[in-house]
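Class prep. Protein, please:
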Amino acid sequence: MRTAGRGGAERGARDGRDGEGPIAAADPVAGSVAAPAIPVFLYHAVMDDPPGWIAEFTVTPKQFAAHLDAVVRSGRTPVTISTVADHLAGRAPLPPRPVLLTFDDGFADLPGPTAEALADRALPATAYLTTGAIAPGGRSLLPPAPMMTLAGAAELERSGMEIGSHTVTHAQLDTLSGRDLAYELRTSKAVLEDALGHEIRHLAYPHGYNSPRVRAMSARAGYETATAVRHALSSDRDERYRIARLIVRRAHTVADVEGWLAGAGARVAPYRDGPKTIAWRWYRRARAVLHGPEFAG
């Protein structure tokens, strides 16, 4: 497996691309009616001095506190991904004006100051953990960074976070063979279930990379939902296996966060992939044939 830094992702952000290709290229679903927007925030690390490869996707503790205060002021109802899953499956309605806070990978700040900042404001959240980066003796494609440990997953649950899978190695799932994809989906789920003693029902695709095949195999692996990136607002009509999230970058301001909380500043899912997104997927698949599985970032 080949490890690639997040420089490509940072360049993609400046060029208007997110993890699933150029965000301006997707088309609305024909005949669709606008649905109430649900902001699903995607955070990575919360620290002052992050490694260079994750710096673009890191906010400082001061920024993070300001974002959380904006969430509280918004009057939205903070929920975890299970609440959205219950709605999308027809089991229960959503509460008024929901908002979700999600965290990917499992950086070292998560069980400590980040969880404390959330608990201080009684804000639930969902953490998607890359098991190969946090389990003893594990292996992942993530470049070096301070990470939490698998033992910290139970601590996160006690603090009010729901735990989901973020695969084993953080590979680009839509470029993998069927065998490798099944390993990423099933092994990470099993590792977390063994550590926590209960079923893991939710998945986040590394850097949002997915495809119809990835979504179908995620369902067969036993996941009830999967979140993507798309840098878009979700809605009460979003797709269960491609829930849109807003990726929070270091350059985003409190005004950006407040705009998203107001249901503005981004398109609203669901919508179809555009031709550039599809072309970007085929380009990455061709690279994977030449170089093997690559880091999704």
Remarks:
- Residues 1-18, 20-33 have pLDDT under 50 and may be disordered.
- The chain is about 35% helix and 20% strand.
- Residues 178-196 form the longest helix (19 residues).
